[in-house]
Write a structure and sequence with these properties.
By secondary structure, the chain is mainly beta. The protein is built from 10 helices and 105 strands.
């Protein structure tokens, strides 16, 4: 007969699947039942390999006889007990059809096989006891017992063992298969195949022992109050192609209390009790939790529980067990209207009889790869219905349904949490109460309703997502405390979304404490999204209270033990009364962030409103695209906090009496970034009410402002200043002592803007304390894109410290010096610039600056009419106004010293008397050019300029200069009409010849001290001498003594020294053309003779290096030879020799003595050729062989000559010593 599995024959049960109490297995409601299967007689033949035994003994209840029969097929025994007695270990016993009403004890290895498991087959009606550790096989039997006994049970004698049920129908009102030996240390193996076990009042299978017990179920159906009950040890369970049903039939007389982990008569289909690291594989298996009609108790599908016993010591943790769903395995629960309906349950802790506590943890349900089953509930198999949630590893955790949820359709699962739909305040309170007692994570969905728990402090201690429909339809009235259990080790995660909170508690005062709307304790991560908060009730106490947690009414409060995170997103917070804050930080949180949040201070008058009040150190706070608008007081108030980072970014807007106020908070890092805005806003009056947008009343704060705006705003009739940046001069307490704002650094970067909107009453951008040197507060301006603006969007005047760092900026000239204001009858001064500071008034002239100061009568010269207390302000010495056309310096000595250190503009001493300011010119007016510079404007017109060695001044604009002072290697280039009163050159004279060229008429030549005129001398050890070339011959003649050096000459001295050459009369510095060489008419006699100019020494006509477009003779670096060069570069103040064309073509060099003397200089080893009419003249200082040949090779002359030797030849072309010449 073909074998058919049970799984293929039985369909999934319908929702009204019940277990009848008739003492017989009942159908599941499927199309075909187990009874039908067994009635067909489907089974295995006795000859099957797994039934092979040493001996086969037969039993027939109808025809058998125990006496005289031998148990053979022809002579069977009547009772099974007789057969067992007669059998040896390993034998098989075959039962004929019939009823065997006998209790059996199997004490050896046996196989007992019936005809089949139908009522007409082999039926055993008494319990079977297994008393052996050897394998036992029960096959094709129907075992149906009554009373409080188990169908098949291992005795205490059997410590371990193996039992197999194959094609067995087993019924017992107590347990079906029971192995309950808690002391057993050996392994039990249970194999169930093609069988049906029904135990309506207890367990279909119960296996308890200390070892790794193995259970295998295949193609079978197990049903009872519990289908499989595995207790203790490390079970290894594999269930394939089967059905497990657990049915609860208990009514109200039994109490279930999952919340307190108390034992009860609610139960489960698959139970793992005090097992550790068990592995349960469910493949293509259906597990259902069912209820009878009268049942009111919850029946779980799977339960991980701790064993309860008042007598046994075998109470263990239930930990590390894994149930894996494979293939089409499915979980089902039929009803949700029972007490605490549970799909899967994991107990957390219990105490044994000795008071020892045991725990349940790390038990999980895993969906295997390729899982295609379902998790459903109810008559309609609703999805999703699981009370499980999947963690990041796709492992399922389990929780109970709170008692408040009577309808399971209101309790469903999302991807990672339990969902509850709540419609009334009562249900809400009940649900959260249950939540706190049980599951670790839950989601509550609130309907479109108003939930009022104003008189209840609602506490949450487990993971929760609380969601409303939106902020116009779901309204909560009441306070919430988020406080995890003390035993919690993981972070508790809370999310609140889409809810409007109207919080109006009764106002408290005196010694009472305000209750925050949401209080956070312990390790809680809170995410709040898309919510609206109306904080309606005022707190009490002053702005400077040291008890803000007690006296102020907060929307969010992080307690001193709070250690998690708070993220507020896409929400609005309305502070509708005084003494309130959006967030009070009173513990060390990992992070607090506000993203796309708006906080509104909705009180026109009053005080003590805060956006984020930081009252504890080390908690980083981030505002991202967040707006805080307050009338009073501070948007971010860090009071005695410190060692933390505040970040305001992404176009956040903070506007209040202080946008950010660091009070006594040391070592803060504050970042204002990405287009954010800090605005100080006030409607107060009087100097004592002055404040700022960014206030530091602390030490060692590091502030970065990048691509952001810091400014102020003023209400009507406001007179108190509101400085964008304020280093508050008032003290704070540190270690019981007064301490002041010190060692703070503010760095301003990018395209940031610092601005005042009242240039008269609030003209400065920064306000400092009084002791600047000791306080050491610094502002750093990075880059050139920072804008410092006044109310008209004009650039403020910058005040720099002595070392050049930024100190302040002011809208007016006066306010760079003194900010004076009259309050009541007292006139107050606030010094702005300090000694050594430079005021960068570069767009203002000296005259305009002087007039601005003289116009400030109240500050400097006379008492205002209504003032009773007044004194004139005296500007400290050594303050510099850097004006457009000069410098004003306070203090005469300081002005003179400054003048000696500067050269680009004139310097004036700013003299202050009791009636006026005046100026006195001091110092040199010379502009120094130490390195190459270009002038594209005439700012330095009419001034002297000093150009250093190797520096080049390029002027591209028309202008007149005073004296131009130039070092020998300096250069001055012009591309415009530039003139000078004089040019003065400092020139280095050496012991060797130098080619000196001065392009202008010389007025004086003096020593560097300017006390001695320089003239030539006769003796080589007695000063300098000069020489020049003869015009008619290549001969250098030394100048006569007591003459001034010529503008062009060669010059030398007995020792290295300097001379100062000054031009005579006004000169033009425009570029000039290069000099021209001498020209000899072609018809002239070319023999050098007196009156004919063949040579001339000339100077570079410009004050910069030029390149000639002709050939010239340039003095060598050693000063001994003028060498012929084509298109040479001529340096400024250098002379050179030009010769006529004929001479240049034949004369290669001009030689001078190596050692200059006071005598005539003559050529040495010189040689050149000249032609005249019918003559060739050879000039040579030493005898030389001369050969003259015509173009046809005829030799006209061949002899040694010296001096000036003339050779007569006809007109023609000749070669003289390989040099071509033409004779006419």
């Amino acid at each position: 007969m073909k074998r058919v599995t049970l799984h293929k024959m039985i369909d999934r049960p319908s929702s009204n699947h019940n277990m009848a109490a008739t003492g017989q297995p009942t159908p599941s409601g499927g199309k075909r039942t187990l009874h039908l299967l067994l009635a067909l007689g489907i089974g295995l033949l006795a000859s099957s390999s797994w039934l092979q035994a040493q001996t086969t003994i037969y039993v027939d209840a109808n025809t058998g006889v125990n006496i005289n029969n031998d148990g053979s097929q022809d002579k069977p025994y009547k009772t099974v007990a007789a057969a067992i007695t007669a059998a040896s270990s390993g034998d098989s016993i075959i039962l004929k059809s019939g009823t065997y009403a006998e209790a059996l004890t199997i004490d050896k290895k046996l196989t007992i096989q019936g005809k089949d498991s139908t009522e007409a087959g082999s039926v055993i009606t008494k319990p079977i006891t297994v008393a052996t550790t050897e394998p036992v096989v029960l096959s094709q039997l129907r075992i149906s017992v009554s009373g409080d006994v188990s169908g098949v049970e291992y005795s205490n004698k059997a410590d371990g063992g193996t039992i197999s049920l194959k094609e067995v129908a087993l019924y017992s009102p107590d347990s079906g298969l029971k192995i309950n030996k808690e002391t057993a240390t050996n392994k039990y193996s249970v194999n169930i195949e093609d069988s049906h076990i029904n135990a309506p009042k207890h367990y279909a299978m119960w296996v308890r022992g200390q070892a790794t017990n193995e259970i295998k179920v295949k193609s079978s159906k197990l049903e009872g109050w519990c289908a499989i009950y595995a207790s203790l040890g490390q079970p290894d369970i594999t269930i394939t192609d089967s059905y497990l049903y657990g049915t609860n039939s208990y009514g109200d007389k039994f109490t279930m209390n999952w919340e307190t982990n108390a034992p009860s008569n609610g139960f489960a289909t698959l139970i793992l009790e005090s097992t550790q690291n068990g592995k349960i594989q469910l493949e293509d298996t259906y597990v259902a939790a069912l209820h009878t009609a009268e049942s009111t108790q919850g029946q779980a599908v799977i339960s991980f529980q701790i064993r309860y016993s008042t007598t046994s010591s075998y109470v263990r943790n239930v930990t590390g067990n894994t149930v894996t769903l494979k293939g089409t395995s499915s979980l089902y629960m039929d009803r949700g209207d029972v007490s605490n309906p549970v799909l899967a349950y994991s107990e957390t802790k219990a105490t044994d009889k000795d008071g020892e506590e045991h725990i349940g943890e790390n038990n999980k349900i895993v969906l295997a790869d390729g899982w295609k089953g379902s998790i459903t509930y109810g008559v309609d198999n609703k999805k999703p219905s699981s009370v499980l949630y999947a963690d990041k590893n796709n492992e399922y955790r389990n929780f109970f349904v709170p008692a408040a949820i009577k309808d399971l359709s209101k309790f469903t699962v999302a991807t990672d949490s339990v969902n509850m739909e709540i419609e009334t305040s009562g249900d809400f309170n009940a649900a959260v109460t249950a939540l706190n007692a049980g599951p670790r994570k839950c989601s509550i969905q609130l309907a479109e309703a108003e939930y009022d728990f104003s008189n209840t402090l609602f506490t949450v201690n487990k993971n929760l997502t609380l969601s409303g429909t939106d902020t116009t339809k779901t309204i909560l009235k009441g306070a919430i405390t988020l406080s995890p259990d003390d035993s919690a080790t993981d972070t508790t995660r809370i999310a609140i979304k889409g809810i409007k909170f109207d919080y109006a508690p009764q106002k408290v005062s005196g010694t009472d404490s305000c209750k925050p709307l949401i209080g956070i304790k312990g390790n809680v991560n809170l995410l709040v999204e898309n919510c609206l908060f109306n904080n309606q009730t005022a707190g009490y106490g002053a702005y400077n209270t040291m008890l803000p947690a007690k006296q102020h009414q907060h929307v969010f409060y992080t307690a001193p033990n709070a250690t998690g995170r708070l993220a507020l997103k896409n929400s609005v917070v309305n502070l509708n009364a005084n003494c309130q804050s959006c967030i009070l930080v009173d513990g060390i949180m990992k992070d607090i962030s506000l993203t796309n949040v708006k906080v509104n201070g909705n009180t026109e008058e009053g005080s003590c409103q805060y956006g984020v009040y930081i009252f504890h150190e080390k908690t980083p706070v981030t505002l991202d695209n967040t707006t805080i608008l307050l009338n009073n007081h501070y948007c971010i108030y860090a009071k005695y906090a410190g060692n933390q980072t505040i970040t305001v970014k992404n176009k956040s807007l903070l506007s209040g009496y202080g946008a950010i106020y660091s009070f006594g908070s040391e070592n803060m890092i504050i970042n204002v970034l990405g287009g954010s805005t800090l605005t100080g806003i006030t409607k107060n009056n009087g100097p004592s009410d002055s404040f700022g947008a960014l206030i530091l009343q602390a030490s060692n704060n590091k502030v970065t402002i990048e691509d952001s705006y810091i400014g102020n705003e003023f209400r009507a009739k406001q007179t108190a200043s509101m400085t964008p940046i304020l280093f508050n001069s008032n003290p704070y307490k540190s270690d019981g002592k007064d301490k002041y704002a010190q060692n703070n650094t503010i760095t301003i970067k990018g395209r940031s803007i610092i601005r005042t909107l009242k240039s008269q009453t609030n003209p400065t951008l920064v306000s400092y304390g009084q002791d600047l040197a000791e306080d050491n507060n610094t502002i750093i301006i990075e880059g050139n894109q920072i804008q410092l603006k006044d109310q008209d969007d004009k650039d403020c005047i910058i005040i720099n410290k002595p070392e050049g760092a930024f100190r302040n900026a002011s809208a007016t000239i006066l306010a760079t010096i003194d900010f004076g204001e009259l309050y009541d009858t007292v006139y107050y001064h606030e010094p702005i610039a300090h000694a050594g500071d430079m005021i960068m008034a570069t767009d203002t002239t000296v005259d305009k600056t002087l007039r601005s100061l003289n116009a400030a009568k109240d500050n400097f010269f006379q008492k205002p009419n209504t003032a009773k207390t007044w004194e004139a302000y005296t500007i400290p010495d050594n303050i510099v106004f850097h004006c457009k056309d000069g410098y004003l310096v306070t203090g005469e000595t300081a002005a003179k010293e400054f003048a000696n250190s500067i050269s680009d503009k004139p310097v004036f001493y700013l003299k202050q008397t009791a009636t006026k300011f005046s100026t006195v010119a001091v110092g040199d007016n010379r502009v120094k050019v130490p390195t190459s510079t270009t002038w594209n404007n005439a700012n330095n017109a009419n001034r002297s300029v000093e150009i250093a060695d190797n520096a080049t001044l390029t002027i591209n604009v028309d202008m007149a200069l005073d004296t131009v002072f130039m070092a020998e290697t300096a250069q001055l280039k012009t591309s415009a009409n530039v003139t000078a009163r004089a040019v003065q050159l400092t020139y280095n004279v050496a012991k060797s010849w130098k080619a000196f060229g001065f392009p202008y008429t010389i007025g004086t030549v003096k020593d560097v001290e300017g006390t001695k005129d320089i003239q030539t001398v006769a003796k080589e050890n007695d000063g300098i001498w000069t020489a020049n070339i003869k015009a008619t011959a290549p001969i250098f003649e030394v100048s006569s003594q007591n003459t001034r050096p010529a503008a062009t000459c060669i010059i030398a001295a007995n020792a290295n020294s300097k001379i100062v050459v000054t031009s005579s009369g006004s000169i033009s510095l425009t570029s000039k053309a290069e000099p021209e060489a001498p020209v000899i008419p072609e018809a002239a006699n070319l023999v050098m003779k007196s009156g004919t100019e063949h040579f001339k020494m000339v100077a570079n006509p410009n004050t910069y290096d030029i390149q000639l477009t002709q050939t010239a003779y340039i003095l060598s670096s050693d000063g001994t030879t003028f060498e012929r060069k084509d298109n040479p570069t001529i340096k400024a103040f250098q002379s050179f020799v030009l010769a006529d064309k004929q001479t240049t073509s034949t004369l290669r060099s001009l030689r001078v003595d190596e050692t200059p003397t006071g005598n005539e200089i003559t050529p040495v080893a010189g040689y050149y050729v000249q032609t005249g009419k019918g003559t060739i003249t050879v000039h040579t200082a030493a005898p030389v062989l001369v050969t003259v040949v015509d173009i046809v090779g005829h030799v006209y002359f061949n002899d040694r000559v010296s001096g000036d030797y003339q050779i007569a030849v006809p007109a023609g072309i000749y070669v003289v010593n390989r040099q071509k010449v033409i004779v006419k």
